[in-house]
Amino acid sequence: MARTTGSHAGITGPRVRQAALRLFAQKGYAAVSMRAIAAEVGVQAGALYNYTPDKESLLFDLMRVHLEELLAQADFGAEADPLTRLRQFVEFHIRFHADRPDEVFIAYMELRNLSPENFAQIEALRRRYEDRLETILRDGAKQGVFAIEDTKIMTLAIIAMLTGVNTWFRSGGRLSLDQVVAQYWDMVRRAVGAE
Amino acid sequence: MARTTGSHAGITGPRVRQAALRLFAQKGYAAVSMRAIAAEVGVQAGALYNYTPDKESLLFDLMRVHLEELLAQADFGAEADPLTRLRQFVEFHIRFHADRPDEVFIAYMELRNLSPENFAQIEALRRRYEDRLETILRDGAKQGVFAIEDTKIMTLAIIAMLTGVNTWFRSGGRLSLDQVVAQYWDMVRRAVGAE
DNA sequence: GTCTATACAGCGATAGAC
DNA sequence: GTCTATCGCTGTATAGAC
Fold first, then answer.
1. Could you tell me the keywords of this UniProt record (chains A, B) (predicted)?
2. What residues of B are in contact with residue A30 (Cβ under 8 Å)?
3. Angle at the Cα of B149 from the Cα atoms of B147 and B151, rounded to 5 degrees
4. How many CB atoms are closer than 10 A to CB A9?
5. Minimal Cα–Cα distance from B6 to chain A, Å?
């Protein structure tokens, strides 16, 4: 069956999300209009509502998909020793976040623009990710491999430190991502008191 | 000379800045209208323009004053040993930032809403603050007190870690600020490889 | 599925009375 | 110094033609 002229099912949708991602990260959610997103895609503003019920859903879906992918990939088997799992976490976190600067930026900066219900969902996903690290730290502390006074603080401190890479790292800069990973692994290993 | 009714020179100005600070931190700069700020102060929107030439200047001044105060207080004399100065930095940073959550939040989150000229000024102030820490680390490394591979990365990693406290710390919570300072000092001391 | 047109509210900023 | 009133514009979202 011939397609109607101007029909782009399965093409425009992803382009809308990609345009929203880029613009939200660059200018901030509240500063981006639906007209601006539509212009980036090459359609009129009204057409966007074939792909999202409203503007906030666009933001929420970007965050949710990002965090679900993060959780899907953040699998550090409990069979390995805690030091190895911690090293895997550090490397994974840095690389995953360096690969998705726009998504990471939005997921941290635009939480205020979610409804309470959507906010709670996003926070729950983030909490599940933090728990992956906390479990590693707790296992290591129990086995005497790490010397940690408070695993919750250590968890938040490590994540803040690692996520901070995104504020300055640029591919092609002074340091390669391999070097960055090595340096942060050094710092984390020392911070948890591992040999 | 009798004051004109409704005249509040020297009173309304600070109240405007305080209302803007609170609302910007809570809802985000772009989501706050001049009318909302005026309502919080208890005046009409037009009256705000007696105190600021425009909305962006309000944001810029809040950031600039915050960072200038940070720099004014962040004085760690070069006479003491690097380990003592680093400890002072860690304690100062955590306490100063915990005292001003709204200012800190704005100064990190709303940089995108500044004109290029204003952005450059704010970034220069922040850079001067980072240099205070980097100098301490460099001195310590030179003297062999610290074992640091790259002082620039260590600087950014420490600041990210310490500033991250603001995302979760609440006065009256499980931990006192004294305990938080002690824990982070432990982590930083280890991370720089100090005895 | 996209268009044009539009409803309706809100925006930053200014002018002029008091 | 604050008010009221207003300008010109932009915002999200919807309706109906094609």
1. DNA-binding, Transcription, Transcription regulation
2. 28-31
3. 95
4. 9
5. 35
CA/C1' separation B7–C14 (Å)? 21
Under an 8 A CB cutoff, do B157 and A191 touch? no
Tokens of A80: 């390995």
Q: Where are the alpha helices (DSSP H) in chain B?
A: 12-27, 34-41, 55-73, 82-99, 101-109, 116-142, 151-163, 177-191
pLDDT band at B56 (very low <50, low <70, confident <90, very high): very high
Fold classification of B56-191 is Tetracycline Repressor; domain 2 (1.10.357)
Give residues with Cβ within 8 angstroms of A42, minimum separation 6.
Answer: none
Fold of A12-52: Arc Repressor Mutant, subunit A (1.10.10)
Q: Check CB contact under 8 Å for A156 and B164.
A: yes
Convert the pLDDT of each residue in A132-172 to its tens digit: 999 999 999 999 999 999 999 999 999 999 999 999 999 99
With CA atoms as reference, the chain B residue closest to A157 would be B161
Whether residue A2 is predicted with pLDDT greater than 60 in this model: the reply is no
